[in-house]
Each structure stands twice: as C-alpha cells, then as structure tokens.
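Record now logged underneath.
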Amino acid sequence: MLDKERYAVKVIQVQEVLLHTKIAPVPGAPSEVLGIINLRGNVVTVVDARTRFGMDPCEVTKLTRILMVDIKGKLIGVVVDSVTEVIELKDEDVESVPDINSSATSIFIQGITNIENELHILVNLDKLISEEELEMLA
C-alpha cells in the first residue's frame, strides 16, 4: 500500500519482503533513492516508491516494508507503506488503463484489477527504474 491506495506487483519479481531497516544515504543520489542497505553481504540500492510516484516521502512505521525486487536482473529495494497480502491474479483479471493520464507515474501502471470491491493498481516494475537509472545505480 501507498498512501491508502492498493498497489500490486508480479510476485515472480519479488525476492523477499523485509522489515524496514537502517538505510545508508548516498550523497548526490536522486531524491527517490533513499540509499543503500547491506543484504547478506550484498549492497542493494533502496528507492522510495512514494517519491517515485510523486507522493510525499515515506514516514517509517512498524508496517513499513522493503520489497526486494528483481528489475531487469538487478536487485533493488523498494520502500512501501505496507504489504498486506499475496493474491493470485489471472491475466483476464487485469484491465488495461485508458491512456488519459499524462502524469509521469502513468508509465509505471500496467493495469488495474478489482478484488473484493477494492481497486488494485498493477505496477510494471520494469518501468519503475529506467535503463539509465539502473546503470547509474550499478
């Protein structure tokens, strides 16, 4: 969840879900890059999903999580407000989004789905970070 909105990602890209931990800042990094963490000896870049989507930066609570996701072969941490559940979606459950929103965040949206009368926005993780940004974070 982000800002009381439900988002979904493909579970195949999620390596694990971590409790929020201390993130070391990286001087000169873009605003959505919170910094880096040490994950079992590997340095992993962590980004703030809220900032990436044009929202106010995250406030860490006991529900805050870091999704460890595979984006184009690179492990990235994505801070989210909370993780509520894992659900199975079929392709036919996901509706495309009309291209009426010109906001920068619309490029991240793969589709929408309605589950138990709640709208979920399916995020295309491969578009969350551009090729250029991935190279810079390497």
Notes: The chain has a mean pLDDT of 85. DSSP finds two helices and eight strands in the chain. The first strand starts at residue 6 and ends at 8.
